[in-house]
Amino acid sequence: xxxxxxxxxxxxxxxxxxxxxxxxxxxxxxxxxxxxxxxxxxxxxxxxxxxxxxxxxxxxxxxxxxxxxxxxxxxxxxxxxxxxxxxxxxxxxxxxxxxxxxxxxxxxxxxxxxxxxxxxxxxxxxxxxxxxxxxxxxxxxxxxxxxxxxxxxxxxxxxxxxxxxxxxxxxxxxxxxxxxxxxxxxxxxxxx
Length: 192
Description:
- This protein is of the alpha/beta class and about 190 residues long.
- It has a single domain (about 20-185), classed as Rossmann fold (3-Layer(aba) Sandwich), CATH 3.40.50.2020.
- It is built from 4 helices and 9 strands.
- The chain has helices spanning about 25-40, 60-70, 120-130, 190; strands at about 15-20, 50-55, 75-80, 95, 105-115, 135-145, 155-160, 165, 185.
- The strands form 2 sheets. A 6-stranded mixed sheet has the order 4-3-2-5-6-7, sandwiched between helices. The chain has a 3-stranded antiparallel sheet with strand order 1-9-8.
- Strand 2, helix 2 and strand 3 form a beta-alpha-beta unit.
- Helix 1 crosses helix 2.
- It starts with 16 loop residues before the first strand and ends with a helix.
- Keywords: Cytoplasm, Glycosyltransferase, Magnesium, Metal-binding, Nucleotide-binding, Purine salvage, Transferase.
- One of its GO terms (cellular component) is cytosol.
- Pathway: Purine metabolism; IMP biosynthesis via salvage pathway; IMP from hypoxanthine: step 1/1; Purine metabolism; GMP biosynthesis via salvage pathway; GMP from guanine: step 1/1.
């Protein structure tokens, strides 16, 4: 489990972030490792591997992951909602934007920003299996093992982190903080 650093780089959100969990260099190094492993798993396939980004949180992750792969890939995007403007998941999944192509017979990697309860991701995996992909796997940047309520089989996990409220590198609270280049913990006073 990764530990929080009290050193917070200067940022436009001032004191809202109380600590850094994963710095920028560590993020990029681990993503490169995960992308190489995925490239090795799908090397030699007849068709491009589809990288599926769950918007908006995984946008930074998919961009860096795709650039680090050394096999042909194509990107797809879905938007799901379970949070709205609150800090806790409602547990109900809503598709806000669906895939633009058929994934039947294709190798698909779901790139997830964070697994907390696992409820949304469990739902998504079941939903996509019904569309007949050749293979379907999950690669997540972050996981909060203590918060998991529904187990989801993952091929790769970037970092296990504590159950703090985290922001940065695509992760938000009320659509803010996504642009931080590292993952940090948000002060409870901001979302309480």
